[in-house]
Amino acid sequence: MSHGNGNRKQVQMSEKTEMSYLLENKSNGMADKNKQGEFYSRPAKLGKWEGFKQFLWNSETSEMLGRTGGSWAKILLFYVLFYAVLAGFFAAMLAVFYQTLDENKPKWQLDNGLIGSNPGLGFRPMPPESNVESTLVWFEASKDENIEYWISAIDEFLDVYKKAEEDTKPHNRVDCTPDSPPKDGKVCRVDVLSSKFGACTKANQYGYSKGSPCVFLKLNKIYNWVPEYYNKSSELPNNMPEDLKTLIESFDENDKKHEVIWVSCEGENPADIENLGPINYIPERGFSGYYFPFLNQKNYLPPVLAINFERPKTGVLINIECKAWARNINHDRAERRGSVHFELMVD
Question: Which helix (H) or strand (E) holds 280?
């Protein structure tokens, strides 16, 4: 029994001796490391300004903005290569894309395109940009400053036509008639300066000074759209105005004068019809067929039509709807397909 106790004491002593030896060696090693400066030492606490200056340039580590010169060189090289590859890929895709396009005609035409094959009507003059959502032509005929805007707006719209007529250089514009359409490479003139426009000329202030305003209409251009004319009395739609039906029926069915995209303007409501008064279509009742199709010809200008409201009732807001008539023009008042709406008010 005493012999067993003695063994246990020897084991405990040896364990204590070994533990003491390990602790002693560890403390000696830590002391040696401390002497060699291998312990982490907390950096001196810097103020905000000193810390910011050290971030800009750390002279101890030769770091600028937290990176060494080599680190900045590597990251700069990476981004140069990355964006060079990206730009090259984009340029290659763009080159492939342009190979699929034709500069003279759209890839998708008529019903296959976003515009579709149903042209719309536009009108000028438009109200000022400050009232961009409005379609109201409102003026006081007795005040020059009141009609000045509307006259200048029409001048601006017709300026491209006037410059074309004043151009003395040889060009491909020719005078056209129903029996003499333009040949290949030629386009028809739109002579807005001629006496054919009657009251709707600059010299007459487009009728605004007399309270007989002119509103100009034009069809939206659609590439390769060919109108299908109403040239038979039996084909005239029921909702076509009676005066337009009478005009069409007065022509021989084989007469080239039938080849017109007809236009009608009416008051939208019975009161509007009563207040609108007589209307003149200048120079004719529509857009002649020899201006179509539009094929992106050089110097091409779309035809314009002037609507002269002779004696609209003053002090009354008049709602007006104008429609273009062809067998392949559908009308939708909600979407303004084949038609245009505006209001007229003369004080």
Answer: strand 279-282
